[in-house]
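Structure ticket #2291
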Amino acid sequence: MYYFVYKHKIYTIRNLNIRLNLHHQLKTMQRLFITLSVILIGLKVNAQINSEDSLKIIIEPKIAKGLSKQEVFIPIIDADTTKSSDIKGEFWDTVSFNPYRNEVVKFPLQITFQDSNYASPISKNKVITSRYGWRRGRPHQGIDIDLVTGDSVYSILDGIVRYARYSRGHGKVVVVRHYNGLETAYAHLSSINVKPNDSVAKGQFIGKGGNTGRSTGSHLHLVTSYKGQYIHPEYIFNFNEDNKIRAQELWVTKEWTRASFHSARRKSKLKLYTTEKEALASLVKTKKIYVVKSGDTLSRISKRNNVSIASICKTNSIRKSSTLKIGQKLVLEL
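Resolution: structure written out below.
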């Protein structure tokens, strides 16, 4: 394992490459995160810029014994600065959690991905303790993932840190804007290890989990948004061990940006729209007349017909607290 000095403190490469352990066998062309100011110590090696596109590391014969080569060349890949300027071009605000607050957006929203996988925000199995949706009379606009205070938290995609500070509700929180315009927020952290305008790679350590802000126990509150619209995270990402992005192209309708259409206590039934045509077709509602029966409640009708309570109330001009009568007719928009 190589060691390097950065800002007069010693870290191991493992700090930036959390999936490695001390006995990890590296592979040819495997990518490792390093800083630009790197001084290799711990092993007696000579590091020098070999050309404009590679770093040459010369290992002492004694240490190189058993290796096929005494010299190792690490290619230097320039960052694409055009991507950085693009995502910082509009509504780049390092002091507001949501700089799009008063912006009017047109639905459906199109989000595209270059990757098919994301990096898990935590290093252990992801256990969702509360989902995106209506919770205790208010919108819960993200998902809660179980962790212990001090657990490492990682950026799920490449991007640039837009916001990293304490917020009254979210506590210590980091917001990363990704190169497709999507933003992810990591809330209730115990410590923040990045600052605004820092570039971060997929899987890079950004802070430690905690219980700061409006929180009743240690967990990671993960928020996904696009142009200020809080999107149901499970519409975009599959939170199992595969870490799959649901599709390379997703079209998001209002249904997936309104917490009132979902319950934080149960998993929403997914219907992905991967083309604009599918998304627009979904906006055409079919109406059904439902006759209230004995024992019916808004919650029961909602579950049985896969329609939100908010939609039932809006369509029929009633409140959530309204008393239903046997034989009453309700219009359901499906």
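Closing remark: Confidence is low (pLDDT under 50) at residues 1-12, 36-45.
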